[in-house]
């Protein structure tokens, strides 16, 4: 036998293709094939894996998939994963139930959280006292020639019909019936309380408390009129006003009726009403200030939703999209490699069939090549399993013939098995199918989910922009345009609710994906992929060589764990079977062709030698096919695509993208729930409604859009209500030395202007009507 023990010294021209001109032994010792890249766990993976609470359940995903885990372990991991997701849905559900309870409880119990504004009822006016004062004035006017009656610091001005009129005076203007806040004060309180309200309120309080000529301030800071209740009204003769000794004097009324006078209880009722009215406007001011803050909070939350949606689109979706593209590209390249190996295995099967036929023919030729020594060297030559050869009759070539026939008859069939080649091809088809399933499921499913989430979040952000506009318009006291009202009620509100529900579902899905990705990639995805391959081992054939190669790639191609089966077959082919033919031919050369021809007789041995050379070439081609297949399974051809898909696509990009998507989605949903809780801020609800028309049943009733004419009537009625409920603005107090003269000449005068009469009529009528809750 030849001393050659390596491919480089073998006469069989078997060399690695595609530039890999390396001896087979050198292949295992070359450090360039030991690919173990440095894997860095991202911050997102670390935080998700450490911070997400698992309810004390198992979080070792590689162990769960490895096949060693029990049924209880798998159930424990699944429960921990799902509960981490269901916690978000449960939180959202409880919040929604709380909002429903707020709506059911109503504004009296939860205030603005019920989606309705409710002002406290205004204090009850002392109607009887006011009527007494009006009758007393009419009697005094008829008796004294139309001169107004001055009583206890209250300057009365009424027309001939007994209705209050306005006074035009440079000095402070007194209350005509009850002390009320100015009209501008009320409007600023309802719509936009600010500097105007504060200045007018201060002026009102200063004017009221400085009216010491007609009222006193006690130690508690309250108005004290008791010292003047029994005083008789004094007038100056120069102004034509006489003192009235008794208002009930029959001579004071030209019609003969009695003149009523306000009692101490009436004055006390008026005083209490003034205090309650001041407190009422303070409460209204506080509630409207709170409403402005709520509208500002709603606007900030809407801006936060828009910002989170932008971050979702800018940071989350591109990263996930890159993960999808990288993973799909890696899977596609692995499919191409698998299909190339499939083609090589098909060629290997074809070469094997040809070589197997050539080996059988050569054994038949050897059986009859030396008829002088023996007619047949082998019994049962047609049956490879029962074939038995004896070359003792040809001692010159006995050793070489025994070795050659042993390798060709036994070793060749063991090394190159037809069923083994079929298993390789089946495993390659299985790998291709698995990659097809991964390509069809992972990128396409993620792409669909990504774009649906993008569409929902952008729509939600657009609605939040409109909500912010509506809240800001109402914050600055501007009415909403009709198109915005209709868009709000018929489009924004139902769409907002649907998007919030879908958003919570997307949040749960992103959280589950983030947790699963972190569990698979926390230290390295290799352990996860090895566990997955072990779980998929049943998909491949028994003792699959390809399955061993796949695990070899996942481990980073360490030399000590490289699959040896295919390499051993190549070594046997190139270093045992082919050299046995060479040794037999060399032995024949030593004997000499002419001597061997005389020894054996029979046909020309030159033809037999040519058959030996042809079989050697055929075996070399088969060895070359094996080596080609082996080089296609070389580590650099596969591991780079595995690392691209697993490290880059599944771990780096996907974990970061899912972390951004989950965090921004949760922020958007929390801010949206706050907007939903404070939805009163962007609705113009009726503070006071007529009986039978007030919205009390549900929220949808309260968001109905009123027609233009009804809105205008409501605004006019509200303005008329506040106009009748307040007196005119108080002016600055004049110097004290001029006060008596002003009272004599101007404060007691009657202004018969038509406009003042009309407003006085409205004021008198509204005083008698009372406030509506």
Automatic annotation (TrEMBL):
Membrane topology field: Multi-pass membrane protein
Keyword Ion transport: yes
InterPro entries: Tweety
Subcellular location: Cell membrane
Any GO MF annotation of the entry: chloride channel activity
Bias-annotated ranges (Polar residues): 234-255
A cellular-component GO term for this protein: plasma membrane
Transmembrane segments annotated in the record for this chain: 77-102, 296-317, 448-475, 487-506
Keyword terms, alphabetized: Cell membrane, Chloride, Chloride channel, Glycoprotein, Ion channel, Ion transport, Membrane, Transmembrane, Transmembrane helix, Transport
Compositionally biased residues, Acidic residues: 707-719, 728-758
Major localisation: membrane
Entry keyword Oxidoreductase: no
Disordered: region residues: 234-259, 707-773
Family: Belongs to the tweety family.
Descriptive protein name: Uncharacterized protein
Organism: Nitzschia inconspicua
């Amino acid at each position: 036998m030849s001393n050659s023990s390596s491919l480089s010294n073998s006469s069989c021209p078997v060399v690695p293709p595609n530039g890999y001109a390396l001896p087979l032994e050198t292949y295992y010792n070359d450090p360039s094939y030991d690919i173990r890249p440095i894997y860095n766990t991202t911050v997102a993976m670390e935080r998700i894996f450490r911070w997400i609470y698992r309810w004390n359940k198992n979080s070792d995903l590689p162990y769960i998939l490895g096949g060693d885990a029990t049924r209880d372990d798998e159930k424990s991991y699944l429960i921990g994963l799902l509960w981490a997701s269901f916690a978000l849905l449960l939180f959202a559900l409880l919040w929604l139930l709380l909002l429903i309870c707020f709506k059911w409880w109503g504004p009296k119990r939860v205030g603005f959280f019920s989606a309705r504004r409710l002002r406290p009822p205004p204090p009850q006016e002392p109607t009887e006292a006011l009527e007494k004062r009006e009758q007393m004035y009419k009697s005094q006017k008829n008796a004294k020639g139309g001169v107004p009656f001055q009583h206890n610091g209250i300057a009365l001005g009424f027309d001939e019909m007994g209705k209050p009129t306005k006074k035009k005076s440079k000095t402070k203007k007194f209350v005509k019936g009850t002390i009320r806040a100015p009209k501008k004060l009320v409007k600023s309180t309802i719509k936009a309380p600010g500097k105007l309200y504060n200045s007018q309120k201060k002026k009102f309080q200063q004017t009221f408390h400085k009216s010491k000529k007609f009222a006193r301030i006690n130690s508690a800071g309250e108005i004290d009129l008791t010292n003047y209740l029994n005083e008789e009204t004094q007038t100056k003769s120069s102004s034509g006003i006489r003192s009235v000794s008794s208002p009930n004097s029959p001579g004071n009324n030209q019609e003969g009726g009695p003149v009523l006078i306000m009692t101490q209880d009436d004055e006390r009722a008026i005083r209490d009403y003034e205090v309650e009215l001041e407190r009422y406007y303070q409460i209204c001011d506080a509630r409207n200030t709170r409403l402005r803050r709520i509208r500002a909070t709603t606007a900030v939350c809407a801006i936060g939703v828009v910002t989170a949606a932008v971050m979702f689109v800018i940071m989350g979706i591109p990263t996930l999209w890159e993960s999808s593209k990288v993973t799909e590209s890696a899977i596609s390249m692995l499919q191409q490699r698998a299909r190339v190996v499939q083609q090589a295995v098909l060629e290997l099967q074809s070469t094997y069939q040809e070589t197997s036929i050539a080996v059988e023919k050569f054994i038949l030729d050897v059986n009859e090549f030396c008829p002088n020594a023996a007619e047949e060297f082998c019994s049962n030559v047609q049956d490879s399993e029962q074939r038995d050869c004896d070359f003792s009759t040809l001692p010159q070539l006995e050793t070489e013939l025994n070795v050659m026939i042993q390798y060709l008859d036994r070793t060749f069939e063991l090394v190159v098995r037809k069923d083994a080649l079929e298993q390789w091809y089946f495993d390659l088809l299985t790998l291709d199918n698995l990659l097809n399933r991964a390509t069809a499921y992972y990128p396409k499913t993620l792409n669909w989910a990504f774009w649906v989430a993008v569409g929902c979040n952008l729509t939600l952000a657009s609605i939040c922009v409109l909500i912010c506009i509506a809240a800001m318009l109402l914050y600055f006291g501007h009415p909403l345009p009709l198109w915005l009202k209709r868009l709000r009620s018929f489009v924004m509100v139902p769409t907002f609710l649907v998007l919030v529900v879908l958003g919570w579902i997307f949040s749960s899905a992103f959280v589950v994906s983030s947790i699963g990705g972190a569990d698979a990639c926390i230290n390295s995805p290799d352990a996860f992929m090895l566990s997955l391959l072990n779980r998929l081992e049943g998909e491949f054939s028994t003792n699959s060589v390809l399955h061993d190669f796949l695990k070899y790639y996942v481990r980073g191609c360490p030399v000590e764990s490289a699959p040896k089966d295919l390499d051993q077959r190549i070594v046997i082919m190139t270093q045992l079977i082919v050299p046995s033919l060479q040794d037999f031919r060399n032995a024949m050369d030593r004997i000499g062709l002419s001597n061997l021809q005389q020894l054996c007789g029979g046909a020309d041995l030159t033809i037999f030698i040519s058959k030996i050379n042809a079989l050697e070439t055929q075996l070399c081609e088969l060895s070359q096919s094996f080596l080609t297949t082996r080089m296609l399974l070389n580590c650099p051809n596969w591991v780079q695509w595995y690392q691209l898909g697993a490290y880059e696509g599944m771990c780096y990009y996907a974990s970061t993208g899912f972390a951004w998507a989950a965090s921004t989605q949760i922020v958007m949903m929390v801010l949206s729930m706050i907007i939903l809780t404070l939805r009163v801020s962007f609705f113009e609800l009726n503070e006071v409604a007529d009986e039978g028309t007030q919205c009390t049943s549900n929220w949808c009733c309260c968001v109905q859009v009123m027609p233009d004419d009804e809105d205008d009537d409501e605004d006019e009625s509200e303005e008329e209500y506040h106009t009748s409920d307040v007196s005119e603005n108080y002016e600055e107090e004049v110097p004290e030395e001029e006060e008596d003269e002003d009272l004599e000449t101007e404060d007691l005068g009657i202004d018969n202007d038509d406009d003042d009469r009309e407003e006085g009529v409205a004021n008198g009528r509204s005083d008698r009507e009372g406030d509506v809750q």
